[in-house]
Amino acid sequence: MNIPITQSKAWQKLQDDLGEASFFEKEASFQYLAILKSTPVGNYLYLPYGPVAENKESFNKAIKSIRQRADENNAIFIRVEPVNSDLIKSSAKEIKKSTDLNPKETWILDLTGSDEELREKLPSRLLRYYKNAQKNNLTIETSNNPDDIKYLLDLQKALASKKGINTFSEAYLKTELSQPFATLYLLKYDNPETNNREVIAAGLVFDDETTRYNLQGAQTEQGRKLHATGILTIKLILDAKKKGLKTFDFWGIAPENAPKDHPWAGFTAFKKTFAGTEVAYAGTYDIVQKPFKYKLYNIVRKLNRLRRRI
């Protein structure tokens, strides 16, 4: 079974450090990590990209086990995101499609093969920028110091203010960077006009045994002019290859045939300049435990979203 990092013991350690209650179960044919979430209406269990199962039979076994956990914790529903969409078809009638939380589609780059074969999959223009980075006063550093997350957070806040999107808290991002699987990349620019060394792009990646997940990143306007995101992405990929990982997950693209004004349209166009493969997952679904409270939960959820828009 291909186990996403979000369904691993390492991810449970992150939940522990965040103060979240979680439940991990592993058997020969299935594995899951269920995180207990609280709402004003009641609790629910969330399985990011899970459960993982070999087939429909083992998926149903996993759901039976998760239902027991839900009953023990008085959960209203179970929120699942199996990577295999066929597994959803075998689920109980109580299952309801929900708003997708993690990306339903992503772009995967195969890192196996020779170094030369990998370079042929990378945009030649970005490779050229990467090779000339030092000439243009650009250097890339890595950090595992949680205090350095401030560089990424500052860039994200600037981007969020322009696009009206939310960011994770500093405490949350610090906890992520403190995990053994996390690495922060910083692209710095020796600005000749100010004589300052500025962080113009940052990226946070997670690595498991096979995959590098490119979860979060941001750049400044100066970084955009200097192709910072492209240069940094090349570095992330080459380092993942050097580390012996097999795949690079760009972590989310817009759905096929999405409108041009889709919020991920620009990111998707950039990611698809790399010779990867589109992978579609099942999406987010809710398995209802308590129908009345589930209806109430959705009413409150819609009201909260309306309040945030206003």
Q: Could you name the key traits of this structure?
A:
globular; seven-stranded mixed β-sheet; 11 helices; 27% strand; Aminopeptidase; alpha+beta; 2 domains
Which word captures the global form? globular
Low-confidence stretches: none
- Main sheet specs: 7 strands, mixed
Query: What is the C-level CATH assignment of the largest domain?
Result: Alpha Beta
The second-level CATH architecture of the largest domain is 3-Layer(aba) Sandwich
> What's the domain count?
2
Summed over residues and divided by their number, the pLDDT gives a mean of: 93
In what range is the share of β-strand residues? 25-35%
What structural class is derived from the secondary structure elements? alpha+beta
Characterise this structure.
By secondary structure, this protein is α+β, with helices and mostly antiparallel strands. It has two domains: 126 residues; 176 residues, Aminopeptidase, CATH 3.40.630. The protein contains eleven helices and 14 strands. The strands form two sheets. Strands 1, 2, 3, 4, 5, 6 and 14 form a seven-stranded mixed sheet that branches. A seven-stranded mixed sheet has the order 8-9-10-11-12-7-13. A hairpin with a 4-residue loop joins strand 9 and strand 10. 35% of the residues are buried.
Summarize the structure.
Helix content is 36%, strand content 27%.
Fold topology:
Elements (H helix, E strand, L loop, with lengths): L8 H10 L3 E5 L3 E9 L4 E5 L4 E2 L2 H17 L2 E6 L4 H4 L6 E3 L7 E6 L4 H5 L4 H8 L6 E6 L5 H15 L6 H8 L4 E10 L4 E12 L3 E9 L1 H5 L2 H15 L4 E3 L15 H7 L5 E4 L4 E4 L2 H19 L1
Parallel strand pairs: 3-5, 11-12
Antiparallel strand pairs: 1-2, 2-3, 2-4, 5-14, 6-14, 7-12, 7-13, 8-9, 9-10, 10-11
Helix pairs in contact: 5-9
